[in-house]
Amino acid sequence: MTLDHAEAPPAGPRQSVELDSVEAMRLLGGVSFGRIGFTQHALPTIRPVNHILVDGDIVIRTHEGAALTRRTRNAGDPGVVVAYEADVIDPATHLGWSVVVTGYAHLVTDPDELARYQSLLRPWVKQTMDYAVRIRPDLVTGIRLTVADAS
């Protein structure tokens, strides 16, 4: 496999500026795609998923047989610890932002709540997604990548 590097990144350093949690969640709510990290067989696992924000929580859809469905179904209180990451970083300029949310994930079991999420969030893969997982954020961090000051 070869990588096509048609355009070299622009010269000059970048700096990472920390975002507050309100701005980080606002940015997260403006995109629909991210990655969820959780443990499977005591090892880290990361899956790409689409999401929505509902009442400050992250909601994703999942399916029967998915590792995350099994993990959240078998979890007691307070749930399964997960990390959720989303970003928008321009591949040419290397400018943008990245947000990471750490919290507890629960399988949605209330039929009305599940129906609501199914109507709000359309899966991006062609697969039956009969389940939803709700992530309650405990720790929200984020950075914005900007051009570094010339000084």
Folded structure, characterized:
By secondary structure, the chain is of the alpha+beta class. Helices cover 17% and strands 46% of the residues. The chain contains three helices and seven strands; from the N terminus they run βαβββαββαβ. A hairpin with a 2-residue loop joins strand 2 and strand 3.
Q: Main β-sheet, in a few words?
A: 6 strands, antiparallel, barrel
Please report which band the strand proportion falls in: under 5%, 5-15%, 15-25%, 25-35%, 35-45% or over 45%.
over 45%
* Overall radius of gyration: 17 Å
Fraction of residues in helices?
10-25%
The main sheet orders its strands as 2-3-4-7-6-5
Q: Give helix and strand order, one letter per element, not per position.
A: EHEEEHEEHE
Distance between the termini: 40 Å
Q: Structural class, from secondary structure content?
A: alpha+beta
Summed over residues and divided by their number, the pLDDT gives a mean of 89
Shape: elongated
pLDDT below 50 for ≥5 consecutive residues: which ranges? none
Number of helices: 3
